[in-house]
Amino acid sequence: MRSTVKNAKPERENQPGGSLPVGELKVSLLEAFVLLACLGKRTAVAHELRIEQGTVTKRIQELERWAGTVLVEHQSSPAKLTRQGVEFLPKAQAILTAIEDARVFKPEPNMPTAPKVSVSQLRAPSGVLKSDKV
């Protein structure tokens, strides 16, 4: 039986499993979840991310609303992932790894680059700027 998170916002109920659209997934939610899975304590996650412990809980709950399922047993200490949380963890880690890889991506030296354009080369369409006199 699949557990769903209570209190999902009504406008999101038409999403599969009551989840949020993909575009509303925030990296900070994934970071909090992965760190909680690794560190086991919300206080440790809060310290690592330099946020309040309540913010960690809110981020996990928001991720659960997005996923449409409970990922963490909220009453356990140290934190314990649900079956769905265990299944989701490698996916969350892969997403964070892909984001980090994209952030540090540097083109190879022999890759062509886009031509540089200076602001003086740009020209607004006629009539857009009041001072545009040709």
Would you mind describing this structure in some detail?
The chain has a domain at 27-105: Orthogonal Bundle (Arc Repressor Mutant, subunit A). Helix content is 43%, strand content 3%. It has helices spanning 27-39, 42-49, 53-67, 83-103; strands spanning 72-73, 80-81. Strands 1-2 form a two-stranded antiparallel sheet. β1 and β2 (80-81) form a beta hairpin. α1 packs across α3 and α1 (27-39) packs across α4. The longest helix has 21 residues, at 83-103. It is elongated, with a radius of gyration of 22 Å. The N and C termini lie far apart (70 Å). The relative contact order is 0.13.
Which helices and strands occur, and which strands form pairs?
Layout: H1 27-39, H2 42-49, H3 53-67, E1 72-73, E2 80-81, H4 83-103
Helix pairs in contact: 1-2, 1-3, 1-4, 2-3
The CATH class of the domain at 27-105: Mainly Alpha
Secondary structure category: mainly alpha
By DSSP, the count of extended strands is: 2
Here the CATH topology of the domain at 27-105 equals Arc Repressor Mutant, subunit A
Low-confidence stretches: 1-17, 127-134
Q: How far apart, in Å, are the first and last alpha carbons?
A: 70 Å
In round numbers, the mean pLDDT is 78
Give the DSSP E fraction (strand runs of 2 or more residues). under 5%
Just name the CATH architecture of the domain at 27-105. Orthogonal Bundle
Shape: elongated
